[in-house]
Amino acid sequence: MKRFMQGMGGVTAIAGLLLAFVAVAFTGLARAQDAANTATNTMELAQPTGQGAGDSEGRPVSVRVKKSGIPRKAQAPQVVADLSTHTVAIKADFAGTRVMLFGALVGSREESKTRPDLIVVVRGPSRVFKMHRKRRVGPIWINSDERIFRAAPGYYALLSSRPLAEIAPADKLQKRGIGFGALKAHLLATGEGFKSLEETNEYADALVRLLRRKGLYRTNDEGVRFTGRYLFRATFDLPANVPLGEYEADVYLWRDGRLLGKFSSALEIEKRGFERFVYEVAHKRPLFYGVAAVIIAIAAGFAAAAVFRKD
Amino acid sequence: MMSIYLPIAEISVNLFLLLGLGGVVGFLSGMFGVGGGFLMTPMLMMIGIPPAVAVATEANQIVASSVSGALAQYRRGNVDVKMGLILLAGGVVGSVLGVQLVKMLREIGQVDLVIKLTYVTMLSIIGSMMFIESLNAIRKTKKAGGKAAATHKAGSHNWVHGLPFRMRFPRSKLYISIIPPIGVGVLVGLLAAIMGVGGGFIMVPAMIYLLRMPTGVVVGTSLFQIGFVTILTTILNAVQNQTVDVVLALILMSSAVIGAQIGARVGAKLPGEQLRVLLALMVLAMCVKLGWGLVSTPEELFSFAGGGH
């Protein structure tokens, strides 16, 4: 919990919050050209890794303040967000960490309306999952059927400001690729070697169940919290066994069962320092690595024998 | 609770858990002259280390404990170097073959099952053999009135003594064919590559019951052979699979070498027959544990291939 407040994470968080405030203030104030320019700069600063890719339906998914300073839909609120950190470094003492996503609603006067709903989806890098089901052969249980899912996220966190069912109907959410319903549909589409839909379903359920147990798939109905009228934040935990790679955190803004906007932010999880050094030597110079490992072991053995040489 | 992230295994594990594991297994290794891999490898898998990494890293760790153990034994003159070299020649062949075999089994997707079945078969045969034999020996010793009636009767011959290519082993006071020791070496090399074990739990009984070597040199000579075979296995695994985790190996080593020294000291003070009963019971316990895992109805039928995360 405290880790993200330390060092760069903390600085980024504070700077980001200030920027978010600037953005909110801007919407309430005049839309003069110079102010718009400032806001544009602010956006770039708040999200240095660039806008997320649009969704598959080609919907307007990311917020970009136009040169004129007027958001696309003048009356509809939009959402901006940032993460407390954009890189998680895995070092020797890494035992999991917590990342905060914070943001603000911008673009319209909200006082008279009901508060919109927010859904945050954090996706880890996609990977191949090879699965087995055990069968009884004689007295023993063996892994018999092998089935493959070509592409499933290695990490998936689903956070929302209230239960998903209250935000939008399941089919709408699934169409937008949000939630475990959509994830499962994706699994069914990327399965390999399955004999029936029923079987695919069983394996897909098992995949989600196993990854939930490992803490890599998670849901939190109250994971997005408003801290005031316009500001919100969401926290998600990355367990120690979190896969490395590029992550994407998407914020979806809904009201009355309609998607109003989306904002994407990127997160990278990588090895650093000694951990990285060891990994790279092991993969780039394997013979050297193997010989070094043996020499270290022999040295340890000799050292121990020397230390204990009393008799 | 202090955790450490392992760069090759790619998971975070409690440091004290690893140190404790290393210490206990090292102690047993020093006491019995077994590498301890047959206890350590399944335990590493149980705490979530991917099997391939557990096997390869364990081989690396055994290098440290067997070198330190072998040195201690060598100083006491308990290593039959000539016999050790013959065993080693077989071990090199077995290790290279084993790495190929693992590659093949991976492709079929049955490497886990084969490993476990091999464990259960090996451990049950050897465990019960040792148990019965050492109980008989204890009974005999008691009848003889406490003074150990030397277990190895000079005149006792078995089929081993009828084979050709005989060689003299002065340290072991043997004149036997080199075919059985080479065969034992090949088997042990295979096991090092497939199961992540030094193979002492096969080699020690084989030396005693098959080759009829004097008990005094068995432990030292097996450690000598294990040291070299695991060096080869570590390098082969590092080059072919990149599965040797140096950080994990270092942690296990640092506590295991200390454990091994203490174990060797304690072992020297205890009577050999009782030690063998203990070892036999341990082997049988592991066997039952693994066998139960294969037979009992699993709670979860599904799993990810490779035990990965």
Q: What does this protein structure show overall?
A:
- The complex is a heterodimer of chains A (311) and B (309).
- Chain A contains eight helices and 13 strands.
- Chain A has 311 residues and is an alpha+beta fold.
- In chain A, a hairpin with a 2-residue loop joins strand 12 and strand 13.
- Chain A is flat.
- By secondary structure, chain B is mostly helical.
- In chain B, the strands form two sheets. Chain B has a two-stranded antiparallel sheet. Chain B has a two-stranded antiparallel sheet with strand order 3-4.
- The two termini of chain B are 22 Å apart.
- The chains are: A alpha+beta (311), B mainly alpha (309).
- At the A-B interface, strand 5, strand 6, helix 6, helix 7 and helix 8 of A face strand 1, helix 3, helix 5, helix 8 and helix 9 of B.
- Strand 5 of chain A pairs antiparallel with strand 5 of chain B, so a sheet runs across the interface.
CATH topology value of the largest domain in chain A: Immunoglobulin-like
Spatial arrangement of strands, main beta sheet of chain B: 1-2
Number of domains of chain B: 1
Structural class of the helix and strand makeup of chain A?
Answer: alpha+beta
Helix content of chain A: 25-40%
Q: Quickly count the helices of chain A.
A: 8
Write the layout of secondary structure elements.
The complex is a heterodimer of chains A (311) and B (309).
Chain A: H1 7-28, H2 33-46, E1 78-83, E2 87-90, E3 97-106, E4 117-123, E5 126-137, E6 140-153, E7 156-160, H3 164-167, H4 170-175, H5 179-190, E8 191-192, H6 197-213, E9 217-220, E10 224-226, E11 231-238, E12 245-255, E13 258-271, H7 273-284, H8 286-307
Parallel strand pairs in A: 2-13, 7-9
Antiparallel strand pairs in A: 1-3, 3-11, 4-7, 4-12, 5-6, 6-8, 10-11, 12-13
Chain B: E1 3-6, E2 11-14, H1 15-32, H2 37-46, H3 51-75, H4 81-108, H5 111-143, E3 166-169, E4 174-177, H6 179-195, H7 200-210, H8 215-241, H9 246-269, H10 272-295, E5 302-304
Antiparallel strand pairs in B: 1-2, 3-4
Helix pairs in contact in B: 1-9, 2-3, 3-8, 3-9, 4-6, 4-8, 5-10, 6-7, 6-8, 7-8
